[in-house]
Amino acid sequence: MSSGRKCKNCGSLDIEVDPARGDAVCTNCGSVLEDNIIVAEVQFEENAHGGSNALGQFVSADSKGGPTNFGASFHIGMGIESREVTLKKARNGITNLCNQLRLNQHCVDTACNFFKMALARNLTRGRKNTHMFAACVYMTCRTEGTPHMLIDISDVLQICCYELGRTYLRISQALCINIPSLGKWFYHIFLILL
């Protein structure tokens, strides 16, 4: 197959370009003119789940040729940056909730640590951020012994108390957090209300 190129060695115009091998060879003298040719076409393959994946490697426009690891480092950098952004948003959301509940900085830090543990174990996937923040703050209230109840947090955030309770139970059980019971405290409140 002629490509319209000219051989540097013999001057022949019979150059065969093979995209599968990624090379260009002169059919007259047999010299390899180019090796590791990067094609400008995009190919896709179907995976087992019916989705499609792009084949090939990312090469920037100003690249001098040859393989680069820009694509790999790009994705790694985005993952680290994304995690930092997630933690920063969590700290802001938890701090805001703790301020509304009049909790101190120690409680904010403890709730943020619960969130970090949940994030590290991929427990945040598929759950709303506000539910996660509220569950972490409620776990902190229970472990620190503050007089806040689940309904207090649900009132502040305007979240269904039952949804918040489900999230709290799943997160606390998955993280194996030993949550003290409300027994004595709840009993004292009950007696005061009588």
Q: Could you provide a short overview of the structure?
A:
With 194 residues, the chain is mainly alpha-helical.
What does this structure look like?
It is a single chain. The protein is mostly helical and 194 residues long. It contains six helices and five strands; from the N terminus they run βββββαααααα. A hairpin with a 4-residue loop joins β1 (15-18) and β2.
Strand order of the largest sheet: 1-2-3
Give the DSSP E fraction (strand runs of 2 or more residues). 5-15%
Estimated helix fraction: 40-55%
- CA(first)-CA(last) distance: 95 Å
Low-confidence stretches at least 5 residues in length (pLDDT < 50)? 66-79
- The gross shape turns out to be rod-shaped
Tell how many strands the DSSP assignment holds: 5
Largest sheet: 3 strands, antiparallel
Q: Any idea what the radius of gyration is?
A: 30 Å
Mean pLDDT: 78
Taken in chain order, the helices and strands follow as EEEEEHHHHHH
The helix count comes to 6
Structural class estimated from helices and strands = mainly alpha
Topology:
Blueprint: E1 15-18, E2 23-26, E3 32-35, E4 43-46, E5 52-55, H1 70-100, H2 105-120, H3 129-144, H4 150-157, H5 161-174, H6 183-193
Descriptive tags:
194 residues; mainly alpha; three-stranded antiparallel β-sheet
